[in-house]
Design brief:
- The chain has a single domain, classed as Aldolase class I (TIM Barrel).
- The longest helix has 18 residues.
- The chain is globular.
- The protein is an alpha/beta fold.
- Strands 1, 2, 3, 4, 5, 8, 9, 10, 11 and 12 form a ten-stranded mixed β-sheet that branches.
- It is 38% helix and 17% strand.
- Bound molecules: ligand PBG.
- Ligand PBG binds next to helix 6.
- The site of ligand PBG has 10 residues, from helix 6.
């Protein structure tokens, strides 16, 4: 007969000892709430596949930011839905374009809100691709110019951080130099470094009206089969002076987050994307899962994998569930 002398259950006996040996926490400080800025006035258009998320015109977006800040969510990531689109996305880079307008509205309402702006062309191009099309594919180097123009326009409007999500080669250094030349040496860049060509972006493309009108994004976003290549993407972005690197999506790529954490000494963000959010919402609406517990477990897993920052549509609800507490 054998009875164990080592018993791991000893440290699980009650809440106090469990808390004492707790390894991972999720704090509201780690969470960034993505928001969709829409042209027009008094617009609050529900995104059907992402319950609780809306396209908001800028004055309502600013109000939403005030509410988020009061709840303890101190950072937002902005996407824009413009009135009209063009061939290159340059339409996003004017002083009165949707994102610069949204940034100014937020900063006027609540200057403390830390505003991150996604930099990409897919919401702004007629064809829905992330850059300028030449011979049926996105031209890398022409696209760099539109991305840099966006980043500079956002900086002029008062953005706190820019986050390029296009996956063009060399965009981090190109954007860095463009910002620096204009005097914005202190605006950090969060690079979507390991961004996979993923079906999990489906609901977002409805939300941002950014689905590609032909083909797919496989010539610029990464193959889900690859992990070594992700390390190469991250390494290059760090060399190009990225301040934070991102892995996206999060849940099917927790191994990539962990590998990045073990390999590089730089803050890591993970994007808990729209499809991951919508799956939870759909199952919860059917009464199949405990939404609050599942959501917390998911965010915990992303932190445990090694993410410092989590971009998540669950951020507001997490803050509401915490009722004034700062972490779980
Ligand atoms: C734009 C962009 C996308 C997402 C963030 N930035 C969509 C895409 O690449 O098609 C997805 C976010 C989400 O699904 O929540 N390039």
């Amino acid at each position: 007969m054998y009875f164990p002398s080592t018993r791991l259950r000893r440290l699980r006996a009650n809440p106090t000892i469990r808390a004492m040996v707790n390894e991972t926490t999720v704090s509201l400080d780690n969470l960034v709430m993505p928001l969709f800025a829409s042209a027009g006035k008094n617009i609050k258009k529900p995104i059907s596949s992402m319950p609780g998320n809306y396209q908001l015109s800028v004055e309502l977006l600013a109000q939403e930011c005030k509410e988020l800040y009061a709840l303890g969510i101190k950072s937002v990531l902005l996407f824009g839905i413009p009135e009209t689109k063009d061939d290159t996305g340059m339409i996003a880079a004017h002083d009165d374009s949707i994102i610069p307008s949204a940034i100014r509205a937020i900063k006027q309402e609540i200057p403390e809100m830390y505003v991150i702006a996604d930099v990409c062309n897919c919401e702004y191009t007629t064809h829905g691709h992330c850059g300028t099309i030449v011979n049926n594919d996105v031209d890398n180097d022409l696209t760099l110019k539109t991305l840099a123009a966006q980043a500079v326009a956002f900086a002029k409007a008062g953005v706190d951080m820019v986050a390029p999500s296009d996956m063009m080669d060399g965009r981090i250094v190109y954007i860095r130099e463009s910002l620096d030349e204009e005097g914005y040496t202190n605006i950090p860049i969060m690079a979507y470094s390991a961004k996979y060509a993923s079906a999990f972006y489906g609901p977002f493309r409805e939300a941002a009206e950014s689905a590609p009108q032909f083909g797919d994004r496989k010539t610029y976003q990464m193959n889900p089969a690859n992990s070594n290549e992700a390390m190469r993407e991250i390494e290059l972005d760090i060399e190009e002076a990225a301040d934070i690197i991102m892995v996206k999506p999060a849940l099917s790529y927790l191994d990539i987050i962990r590998r990045a954490k073990d390999t590089f000494n730089i803050p890591i963000a993970a994007y808990n994307v729209s499809g991951e959010f919508s799956m939870v919402k759909a199952a919860a609406a059917n009464g199949w899962i405990d939404e609050e517990r599942i959501t917390k477990e998911i965010l915990m897993s992303i932190r445990r994998a090694g993410a410092d920052i989590i971009l998540t549509y669950h951020a507001k609800e997490i803050a509401q569930w915490l009722k004034g507490e700062k972490y779980f």
